[in-house]
Structure formats: structure tokens, C-alpha cells
């Protein structure tokens, strides 16, 4: 272990914060001095190191005897908190250096210097690659102690005191102590108590083995088995029952076979009767099938004649169809000829009309040029008329839209009775704008209305954008509230899980206590039973091996006998309770693991919710910024001016906003439908009522009446303008009417261009008419040719059909003559394909059924034949069934009796086997007990105390050997020796004085300085003697140097330097001796500052 940095705050005389950087202040010092006057606080540095590593101090432990109260005495007086932080490192098994920071802190209640001390808190941090990893930080021992044990690899505070922090007082007391005190001290500094425990356990194991042997003997005596004669008689009974059971089984099986034969015969006869009935029914079906066979035969006979009849009828129908086609063909020819004549007439008429049109066009050419000018002027007048009408319609629409907007504003003003002063002023400005617009309904009325509508459209678009952003704000706020709710719920659930974990941990502690209590109860019961077993071995008149008394008053006590009888049951009960407690403890541990996993998941969910909440907050800020910009574009006051209001007003508005969330949503839907001024009203509707609002509304209504009157005047003016326009266009309308009348009368347009177009269209129509009739004539010729071809084809088809009809009729007459049947008789006997298939299927089914019935009857008779003449009456069957039942019952009774006897025999076999096994166990136990008796005789005498003393003497000899190696340098005159008695080492030792002919001297003859040097050698020897699992890189020697003269002090310092050079250890001396300052250049000085305060400084 190596120290790197120590931080101390408010520890005893060290008020405030103090830092000792071992790496920076004393980087290469092999030997350094912690020096200062008595009471300045030198040992406080050692207390701080012990507090950081182990949470206790060695000095206060000796003074109070209660290590758990040490911390009450280390905090500086008048302070409310203190802490210690030690950065140290240790060499791992693989050679790596592991670095840690251990801390200990404590405070008083309510941070008050007079408050009650609170439980100290300890923490441990591991430094890896420059990064710090917190291993534990808690005030509960069960949580932080495992981490410290792993980091220190099991190093305890006693190990630390014996190998690193060497306090001279322990060894001075050891030198001057009595034998018993010396044994106690030696046991504490060398850990020989383990040997007494081993010896005690060996003695206890011998007693347990003896008790176990007696218990086995008692249990073996309780096992009872049958005698030889009784067992032979039992075997005979079993053999007799086996023979009777076999006989009963054979009889029952034979009777059962007879019963089965009878049942089989009855069943076959019943089936044969049923088959015969089915055969009788089949015969009837077979007769009906013969009739159907005759129908099929008649069908086969007349089928050819029937087909000839059908062919003759089909040929006759074909001849009739051809005749009808000839008649229709003749009618078509008559129509084609009439159409051809009409087409010729129409063609001639069209050609005449075309010539007349061309002649008339030449006569009208002059009039066409005059009409072109009149047409152009008429078009101009009609365009002006349409423009004026459209302008008048637009004015009317704008006036109606303005009236509608006024009515909507009036309705909105009536609904919002809590409008503020700026609202009223804006309404007045809007009213003045409307008055101005209405009064100016003259020539520029349309342009002003249009400009106003354009501005309103822009504001409306801005309002729509603001409404969209406001919807986003509401959605983000809602999502933020949901996230906050989820976060609160998760936090509450985390708190509940932590409470559950705390409760489970408390239950674990309680179960642990209960487990210890029940374990102790089991041990106690076993001890009581052990005493009972020892008591049973006593004999009246013989001395007790424990107390030596020959009287044993409780040997025959009923109470003791009841205790012995209940011992086993109580042991089982207590053991079961112990196992149940262990099971419950494991169950709670699993529950704790599940809760911890759940807690980890909840914390992860909480972190995700917090991250999402930050994202929502950023999105809400962006939406608010866009919303503010849209309001400014719409002409509203920016949001920053609202934020400049008083904080209390803003808070009240925010609460009102939450309370009227639904109302705002309705207002938002209306914002999308209203113009910019209506949206202005919605945004500023959050202030106090005005008493004069009703009066303002009344004035607005009056102004609205005036505005409507002005609007009516504007409408009248518009009507006058319209009338003037009508007067202007009336001559044009009369001209148009005359023009239309002229067109109706002459059939020709008056305008030149129209007339020319009419002439051209007339000529084109005439030409088209000529072309149409010419094309019709060509089509008529094609139709005529097609008709002629069809007429030739029809004549050929008629001839062929007449020949087929003659041939079929002749064949049919011959077939009817052969059958001697008429056509009607043939047609009545022939069957359709469906009927014929059904009849054939029915006949096949009847034949198949008959075959199956015959085969089944044959099989039944063949099965009945081997059975012979079996009595199949119901009475015989009943008697046979009763006989079978009786035989089976007899067989079952014999089986039950045989089972009972076999169970008795098997039970006796098990008991014999158990007794044999118990005898084997007894023999093995006796052999094992002899081993434990020998071991207990060697190391278990007096509950292991003798073995402990022997181990202590061996440790003392090893300790003395190591101490003498250091004593040769510290004081070569002396050498420690261990006294022996009867050839064995004892706990007594003296010093050998080499300057007095190697005379043995008592330790009491040594001076103070000589005693210190001997004690120092023992301390250094112990630091080597104590075996721990990591190298010791630093030694802290506390006090004792004040008893040495200058020369001895020089020798001691040089010896320590030599020790450092040999072992590469860093050695610190804690002393108040001033002369050490000259011998050791590197010093940590603790200097008093007065009033019980000190400070730390490093001098090189």
C-alpha cells in the first residue's frame, strides 16, 4: 500500500482544510518525519488515515472501548462537519497498481455545532486511466463495507495496526505484562486465536461424534424385525395364497372364455336373422329393377329411329327458315330500289341549290362591305356595356360584403363585454374607416374597397399563420404537460420502488436476524439433547466427568425423560423452521434483484422523458417565436410587450389561460373565419371589464344604423349610375333589335362580315349536300351488289336442304316399318341421357347390395359352424355371468390378502436392510470417532486453549527471530531469547547480554531507552511476521523516540534507513523529539496556532 494524497478538515486540532501531497511534497523521501509538540495533532494524521480506510481510529478505540462511538471524539469542537479523504494505491496480483480515493465524512444535525452527531458516510472511488468511477457512497455498513473489503483485499484495521501503523505502546505493554496478559496481547497481535477455535472445534466435533454414535445405537435398538419362525410361517402363507390365486385365476379365465363364446354366438345369430330380412327386402328391389331393365332395353331398340325423327324435324325447320329469309330479302330489295330513286332526286335538287346560292352571293357582295363598319361599332358598344355591367355588379358585391362584415363585427362586439380601452379605440377607427369608405362610394368606390380587401386578405393570411402556430403551441404545451405527468408518475414510481427496495432490505435484515435466532435455537436444542445423551451414560454411584459428583438427581426424572422423547421432534421442527427462513430469505433476495432491475428500467425511462421534455420545450419556443412574428405581420402588438407586464398579472393570465382552454379553442376556430380586426379582438380579450362598455356598444349600434343609411345612399347613387348607363346603351339596344329583326325578315345578317360569312357557309352547306347525296348513291350501288350475291347463296342453300329432308324422311319410313311402330310410340319409349344414367346406376346398386348380403350371410354361417350347438338362451347367459363375477371376486379377495402378506414381508425385509445399514453406519462412525478422539486429545484439551498456547509459543519464537535481526543494528549488545519449560517454549522471554558473557537478564533490568529499542525491534519484526496478501510499502512508527539518548537515536534512525534500503519501504516517524529534525531532512510539521488549533506544513 502507498499513500499519495491526504485531505483533512476539522479533525481535532486541525481546524479547516489541510492537504498532504505525498507525491509532490515528499516524492523521493525514504524516511520522513511527522513532528510537532505534544498535543499539536501529529497522531490526528494517523487517525485520519484510519478513518478514511476503516472508519475508526486506534487511539479512541483504546480509550472508550466502543469503536462505533469513535467518531464522536474526532470532530473539532465548535464545528458542524468534518471529513477525511485519502488517495492511495495497491499492487494487484498481476503487478498492476490500482489507485483509489477513500473518504469519510460526518456532520451534526441541521449543520449546527451543537446538533446531534449523524451517522458517518463513507465513499470509495476507483481511478482508471485518469477517470474516476464511484464504487459506493453511503452511510450503511452493509452497502459500503463489501466494496472496501474488495479494494483492501481483506485488510482489517488490526492487520493495518500490526503491519503498517506500529504503535509502540502495544509492545511496551507486551514486554511488561504478566503471563495471562502477555498471552492475550500476543493473541491480538499475532492472530493465534484461530488455533484455540480450531482446538475447540475439534473437541466439539469429538462430542458431536460421540453423541451421534449413541443416537445411532439408540435408533438401531428401536428397529424391530420378525423372528425366524414367524418369517417362515409368513412365507408358507404367501406360497399357499399364490397357488390358490393361480387356481382362481384359471377358473375365472375359463368361465370368461365360455361367456365370450356365448355372447359371440348370440351376436352372430342375431346378425344372421337381420341379414335374412335384408335379403327378403332385396328381392323386392330386384323385381322392381327388372321393370327398369325393360325400359332400358326399349330405349336401346328405338334410339336410332328417334334420332332420325329429330334429324327430319331439324331439316324441315331449316327449310322453313330459308323461306323466311327469301321473303325478307325481297322486301329489302324493294326498299333499296326506292331509296336509290329518292337519292337521285335529292342529288339533282342539291346541285340546283348550289347554283342559286353562288348567284345570290354575287348580288349581295356590295351590301356586305357596308355591314362590316356597322358590325365593328356594335362590337365596341357591346364591350363597353359588358364592362359597365360587370363594374356595377362588383360594386354591389363589395357593398353587400361590407354590410356583412359590419354585422359580424356588431355580433362580435356584443359577445365580448370585457374588451379593454385599446379594443374600443380600434373599433372606433374601424367604424371611421367604414364611414369613409361608404361616404366615398363614388367613382373611386370600387378601387378603395378593392385595396381594403387586399389589405384584409394579407392580415387574414397572417392570422391564419398565427392560428396555425398557436395550434402547434397548444399541442406542444399539451404534450409537455403529458410528458411532465409521465415524468412525475415515473418519479413517483421510482420513489415507490425505492421504498419497496428499502422495505425488502429491512425484511432481509429481519430475516437475517431471524435466521441467526433460529440457528441459535437449533444449536441450543442440540446442546440440550447432547446433555441428555451424556446424562443417560451416567450411573448411580459413579462420579460425573464434568462435576465429579456421584449423585445424579435428574437421572430418572420424568421431566428429563419427556425432554429426551421430544428432542427429535423439536430438532425436526426447528430445522424445518430454519430451512423455511432460508427459503424466505432467498425469495426476498430474488425479489430485491427484480426490484433493482425495475428501478434501472424506470430510471432509463425517466431519462428518456426528460430528454424528450427538453426537445418539446425547444420546439415550443420556436413555435412561440413564429407565432409572435405572425402577429406582428398582422398588425398586432408583439409578444415581447406583453412579457414586460407585471409578473403577478402574467401569472394570473397564465392561470386564466389554463382554466379557459376550451374557450380559447373555440375562439381559435372563429379566428380562421374572421378578418384582421376580429382576430385583433380575440388576441386582446384577457383584461378587466369597463363600466362604460354597454354605453360604447349602444353608440356602436347607433353608428351602425348611420352606416347602413349611408350604405343605402350609396346604393341609390349606384342605381342612378346604372340608370345613366341604361340611357347611354338604350340606342345601342334599339339598333341591335333592328339588326335582329332585319336578320329575321331577310334571313341574312345585316353586318358585312356576318353576311359574307353567311354566304360562304351557305355555299359550303350546299356543296356538302351534293357530296352527301353522291356518296349515298355510291353506297346504294354497293348494297345492290351485295343483295344479288346473297340471293344466289340462298337459292343454293334451299336446294341442299330439300335434298337432306328427302333422304332423312325415306330412312325414317324404313325404320318405322321395321319396328312396326309409329313416330309417337318411338318418341314415348326413348329415354333422356339423365334418366338412362339414373336407371343404370340404380340397377348396379341393387346388384351390388345383393352380392354383399350374400357374402355377409356366408361369413356369419362360417363363424357359427365352429361354435357348434351352443346354448344361447338368456337364462344360461345370466347364470354364466354370475359365475364369472363370483370367480373374479374370489380372485380379487385372494389378491388383497396376498398383497397384505407381501407388504408385511417386504416391510420386514426393509427393516432388516435398514438394520444392516445402521450396523454398517455404526461401524463406520466408531472408526471415525476414534480419529476425532485422537485429534481432540492432541489439540482439543481445555477447549483448544492448550493448542493456542502452543501456537503462541511458536509464533513468539518466530517473532523473536525477526526482532533480533533488527535488534543487532539497533542495539548489538542485546538479543531476545524465549524461555523453555520441560523442553517446550513458553510465553516468557528474557534478553541475552553479550557484553556480560552472554548472561540472561530479565527484561525488567533494561533502561527506558533499551526497552524502547527492544520494543521497536519487536514492532519491525511484526511488520515482517504478519502475512498479508499485498506488499507493505510504508511503515508508520508512532512515538517512543523521546526515551533514547542522542547516540541511540542516531543508531535507530540509521537502522530504519537501512531497513528502507533493503525493503524499498517508505518509513514515517511520528515524534516530538526536536533532534530528529536534524537527522531527517523531509518533515511534515504540525505547528500549534493557539487556542487548540494547529496547521500542517511540509519542510524539505
UniProtKB/TrEMBL annotation:
Residues in the signal sequence: none
Molecular function (Gene Ontology), one example: ATP hydrolysis activity
GO biological process terms held by the UniProt record: double-strand break repair
PANTHER family: ABC TRANSPORTER ABCH.3
Protein name: AAA family ATPase
Annotated Pfam families: AAA_23, SbcC_Walker_B
Domain Rad50/SbcC-type AAA: 5-278
Key words of the record: Coiled coil
SUPFAM superfamilies assigned: P-loop containing nucleoside triphosphate hydrolases, Rad50 coiled-coil Zn hook
Coiled coil: 199-265, 650-724, 798-904
Listed InterPro entries: P-loop_NTPase, Rad50/SbcC_AAA
